[in-house]
Amino acid sequence: NHCVKLLFLRALFCLLSITGFAVPVTAYTLKRCRISRNKAICTESHLTNIPQDIPARVIGFDLSKNRISKIKVSDFKDLKNLKTLYLIKNNISVIDKGAFTHLIALQVLNLNTNSLTEVEDNLFDGLSNLTELRLAKNHIQAVAPSAFQSLTNLNFLDLGNNKLHSLTQVKSILHYLPHLQYLWIGGNNFSTFQSSDFSSKSTKLRELDLSGNSNLKVFNLTTDIFPNLTSLNLGHCGKTNSMIWEVHNKTFLGRVSNLDISGLNMSLEGMKTLLESLNSSLISLRMSAMRRNVQALINISCGIPSLSKLELRSNGFKAVTQNLFHLCVSVSELDLASNQIRCRSDNCFRSLRQLRILNLKSNRLSSVPFATRNLPTLEELDLSFNEISALGCQDFANLTTLRKLSIRQNMISSLKDCAFKDLRQLQVLRLNNNYISNLNGAFKNYLPNLISLTLNKNRLTIIRKGTFASLQSLQNLSLHENQINRLEPGSFIGLTNLTIIQLQSNNLTRSQINISVFGALKNLKTLHLMENHIKYDTEDKIVDPPFSQLSKLETLLIFAQHYRLKSHLPQNLLQGLTNLLVFRTRNIEILSLHPDTFNYTPLLKELDISSNELTDIPAQLFSQIKNLEKLYVSRTNLRSLDFLVNANLTKLRFLQVRKNAFSVISEEQLQSLPALDYLDMQGNSFTCNCDNAWFLQWVKNNNQTQVYDAYNFECNYPHALKGMKLLNIDFHTCSVDIGFICFMSTSCTVILFLLAFFTYHFLRWQLVYAYYLLLASLFDKKQRNKQTSHQYDAFVSYNIHDEPWVLRELLPKLEGEQGWRLCLHHRDFQPGKPILDNITDAIYQSRKTLCVISRRYLESEWCSREIQVASFRLFDERKDVLILVFLEEIPGWQLTPYHRIRRLLRRRTYLSWSRAEEHRGLFWEKLRQALETKEDPVLQSKKTLVFLKKIFYYILSQHLLQE
């Protein structure tokens, strides 16, 4: 009983240790989303419900552009750390009450562009920390009085572009939102705006947007409900009816500094009254897309002494006359973009003595306006999107304070040497998207303070020596998307402070990428050479590596080209780049990488070698870049990820291996990446058998590494499962359930023990009787059925070294004199038949087996087989079929290794040739008698039965005595 208890307790402990104490983990594999910087991104995923597999630790959740129609109470119950939630462009029409109660940390909620029709009471309960709420572009017609009651910390509210028609629907907003600073309610159907519609005063509101309320007829303020308002947007209001402005006291809006009345439909007198209401505070005024009275409005607004920024876009100006801005002496920023200005007066801007920023973008200027030369205070000038075809030497005369100049998207074909001669303070120059094919000497002698120069999307073909010689302050140079096919030695001389140069998408070849070109760029940090025609034919070291002088370079993007050519990377191509952090070389058909390629870049953190022909990657490639954090190896026909095992990438966090040829992921491969938190294997096909069973469980259960798009992984093998999803395959038969095995083995042990215990106590004598009775019955039946005819009298088993004795002594006596028929292996075995079969047939076709034993016999493998078969026959037939003849004396201790013969000697007599030296006749007589011995099967059967019955009666008597 004590033993049974111990076994039971052991089984119970085994089960609990395997199953009961297992700690559940949170899966990190998302069906439709991905995690980036602790934010869940589920945009454009065709979702109809909020996914429930988002980790609780995320602080951002973007569900924009899906098909979600309802938000339920349980949708966000586990996301208590969430701070931003974006639900833009869905079909949300129903939000259950209490749906946001679990989002106690939420700060930003964006529900723009949905199908909400009403904001119900207590809809936002629980969002006490919310600071920004956007409900624009819904179909909201009503707002319940206490809808925003819980939003005590709300700072920004957007209800624009809905179907609200009365301010009384939102009058509780200011009452319940004491910290509100930005209120956008434009694009609705308000017909009047009156201070009496608000239930309380907002002391903190700074910005009010009423734009797009085309039916707004009256703006009426009888009390000062917005004492701190600084920005007011009335753009495109009153389109159906002219709006009436009724502000009883000018001090009510005395702090408004930004006003937008673009497209406002109001009488000139009303406009004048409106502007006079802001006479002491207005700084920025937008009057774009005005219908009429533009000149008069300019004169009125420029009469405001505080006005400094004036926007007049899309007003249809075809010319700027001398008198248009004659009153705007205080204006410092003037925006005339998107008009049709073609003609111009030479003195049209002369009155703007304080003008700093002038925007003439998107007009019809064919040359730089002469009027801009007379603006000595100008700091920014935008002439983009015009029709300027050339730059003259005097176009920017006297603009000595200009810092930013944009002439992009024009029709300039070349630059004169003197084009920028007066722009000594210029810092930013944009000349991209023109037709420039020749820079001449425009940058050889001028622009000493230029920091950024964009020349991309032109028609440059050659960069000559010293082209940028005077640009010693330049930090950013953009030359991408030209047709550059030649870089002369010294092309970048003078650019000692350059940190970024973009040369991608040109026609550069290997010969242009050399030390004489880039050697002058001592402070360069980023070099873009993608989408060119650079190709190396060997992995061997090259003379004068092209980047060997760029010791401060941190980012190198190289070699993506327009056409496919097989190529290599010289093993010392990166020599000198001791501070390189990012290296990308994509789509250049690299066949292999030398193991020493990255020996020169010990600080490398990001490596992209995707879209190449790297069917295999040597693990030694990563031996010197132990700080690698991101690795991209997509579309390279990789057959295996075994290179990861010995790569020692202990800091790798991001691995992308899309669209490769491997199909099995091993435990060893992934466990070699202890810091991995993002794995992208999209586009691979997997083997769906037990080889991937561990990987499947790891994908589902690991809580560290996000496996992107894992639920779309497909099977490629076996054929019957092709196209099925990997995560839908059941691999339970592949795994060993240790708990179940422990339970079953322990249970079986207990049951067997109990059964044996019960049998021993109650059934042991019955079983003993049945056993002996069965033996007797089987033996008797076998003897009755057996009718054996023997071909030989004896089979002689001997070693080849004892053959002389057999042939000279044994054979003449037994066959010659006594007439026995013997079976000898060298004479009677059937040729071509297996030896073991010959031995077995010879023994069973002979009445006796005569073993001629010597020391050689005992060491022979085949002799051992022969005596083994003879022993089996002896025990099987229970007849005297074995005769032992010892040719020499063998001590008992030497027979110890030969247990079968020792066992036979204990139970049988034998003949000794060595002892019969003086009695040879007696020896042969005894051997003859042994060969003559026969057993009567019926008599033997009777003897056996009698013997077994005696044993049974003895056992039974002992049992009765015990009872």
UniProtKB/TrEMBL annotation:
Domain of life: Eukaryota
Keywords: Glycoprotein, Immunity, Inflammatory response, Innate immunity, Leucine-rich repeat, Membrane, Receptor, Repeat, Signal, Transmembrane, Transmembrane helix
GO MF: signaling receptor activity
Bilayer-spanning residue ranges: 738-763
GO cellular component: plasma membrane
InterPro entries the UniProt entry points to: Cys-rich_flank_reg_C (IPR000483), Leu-rich_rpt (IPR001611), Leu-rich_rpt_typical-subtyp (IPR003591), LRR_dom_sf (IPR032675), TIR_dom (IPR000157), Toll_tir_struct_dom_sf (IPR035897)
Domain TIR: 790-931
Pfam name, any one: TIR
Localization annotation: Membrane
Span of the signal peptide: 1-22
A GO BP entry: inflammatory response
Gene3D superfamilies: Ribonuclease Inhibitor, Toll/interleukin-1 receptor homology (TIR) domain
Bilayer topology: Single-pass type I membrane protein
Protein family per UniProt: Belongs to the Toll-like receptor family.
Record-linked PANTHER family: LOW QUALITY PROTEIN: TOLL-LIKE RECEPTOR 13-RELATED (PTHR24365:SF522), TOLL-LIKE RECEPTOR (PTHR24365)
Name this protein carries in UniProt: Toll-like receptor 22
